[in-house]
Design a protein that fits this description.
With 159 residues, the protein is mainly α. The protein has a single domain, classed as Orthogonal Bundle (DNA polymerase, domain 1), CATH 1.10.150.130. It contains seven helices and no strands. α3 runs parallel beside α7. It is globular. The N and C termini lie far apart (40 Å). The C terminus is likely disordered.
Length: 159
C-alpha cells in the first residue's frame, strides 16, 4: 500500500480503500494490487478535488460516478500525454466496480434479517436489499454496475 498520495482523498473513502487493498493484498499479485490501489487513490483524489464536501463512500451517488467516467475518458496518460486508451479506462472502472461490489456485499451480510424476519420470503426479496444498501451506502449496486460496466461508452439510463 502506497503511503503517499492519499492526503487529498476524503478520509472516509481512504479508510475504506485501505481496508479493501489490505484484503486483496492477501490473494492477488503485487502488481495487480499496485494498480488497484492507484486507481482507488486516483478516484479518491478526484472526488476530494471535485467534490470537497464528500467525506465517505456513503455520500457518493450516481452523478459522482458519471462525472468521474467523463473525466477519466478525457484524461491524458501520465507517460504518453495522450488520452487514455479504452483498455486503461475499462480497467480503472472495473477496479472501482469491484471495490463497490465488495462493499455492497459486506453491507448485505451485516444487515441480514435475523430470527422470524430471516424465515419470511419477503426478507429475501431484492427490494429489501436494495433499500438497505441504498440507504446505507448511497451508491446502489443497480446504479453502479451499468455505469461502471460500460467503460468509456455513454451510459444509457434504463427505464
Amino acid at each position: 500500500m502506497s503511503v503517499t498520495g492519499w492526503t487529498a482523498v476524503p478520509p472516509g473513502f481512504a479508510e475504506a480503500a485501505h481496508r479493501y487493498v489490505a484484503q486483496i493484498d492477501l490473494s492477488l499479485a503485487p502488481s495487480t494490487v499496485k494498480h488497484i490501489e492507484h486507481d482507488l487513490r486516483e478516484f479518491g483524489t478526484w472526488v476530494g478535488q471535485s467534490y470537497p464536501d464528500v467525506a465517505t463512500c456513503a455520500e457518493l451517488n450516481r452523478n459522482h460516478i458519471e462525472h468521474y467516467k467523463t473525466w477519466v475518458g478525457a484524461k491524458d496518460g501520465c507517460y504518453t500525454a495522450k488520452p487514455l486508451n479504452r483498455v486503461s479506462i475499462k480497467n480503472r472502472l472495473i477496479n472501482l466496480r469491484c471495490f463497490f461490489d465488495l462493499r455492497d456485499r459486506l453491507l448485505r451480510s451485516q444487515h441480514r434479517p435475523t430470527g422470524d424476519a430471516a424465515n419470511r420470503k419477503t426478507a429475501r426479496k431484492p427490494g429489501w436489499f436494495s433499500l438497505s444498501v441504498e440507504l446505507r451506502s448511497g451508491v446502489h449496486h443497480a446504479v453502479l454496475t451499468p455505469l461502471l460496466n460500460h467503460g468509456p461508452r455513454k451510459f444509457r439510463a434504463v427505464p
